[in-house]
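Quick question, first post here. What does this chain look like in 3D?
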Amino acid sequence: MEPQDLAAGEEFGRFFEIVRILRGPQGCPWDREQTPESLKGFLLEEAFECLDAIGRDDSEHVSEELGDVFLIAAMIAYVYEQQGAFSVARVFRDIGDKLVRRHPHVFGDADASDSGAVKRQWDEIKTHIEGKSGKHSLLDRVSRGFSPLEAAFRLQRKAAKVGFDWPDYRPVIGKIHEELGELQAELSVADKATPGGTAKNDDQRGADIEQEVGDLLFSVVNLSRKLGIDPTLALHQANDKFRRRFLFVEQGMRDSGREMTSAEVDAMEDLWRRSKQQRP
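> Answer (accepted):
Ran it through. Tokens below.
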């Protein structure tokens, strides 16, 4: 074992002891109050912050954000250990066993000369050794724990693997126009609705519009997939761009002594146009 490997083990031991103390009787009140349910949002947030750092090729920030991801994951695992559900040791034992089991070409005598062979081997192991063939649908393999955006992307990708897919991106653009038209039709019906209609009718119209918005978003995710673009990362970049431009607007309004109100929308629009000339 290399010195750096020993150091990693020692540092992880110290790290986990800190987590244990924070959750202990003499630890931090906030940390002691946390549950897996309260921490899951932090796990997602830290993962996205890590993705952002990776996207900016900021290795120092990546190191920091990975530490935060490890912290939340370890905290969640230790909460379950305290509840008697499973131990942290079991988490590492199980993943270690899985890695060895799924890499017989590394830890055994199997042969897998390329990544395609490795993937086929994984599928065989999951089906014939781990007994994970009890799925009633190909789509059952897409966890419901994913964000809706990520789930849509993965559902479409699973369906595409068995040939249920558009030939290329062009008909998907047509589908987007179709879904947009259906949404506009629902909005038109809502606009023409008699004021003071029943709550049931209002609720149904709202549900119909929500469904059409969902169909439109699903189609946009499909276009992203056909273009070879990860929709989550694309939306993350769009969010970052909006944040950057809005900060430019805020700063410009402060510099000119103006309030951020609807009465100043023309000034804000002008600053927004100018923000587009800054960093792309």
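Residues 199-226 form the longest helix (28 residues).
The two ends are 46 Å apart (CA to CA).
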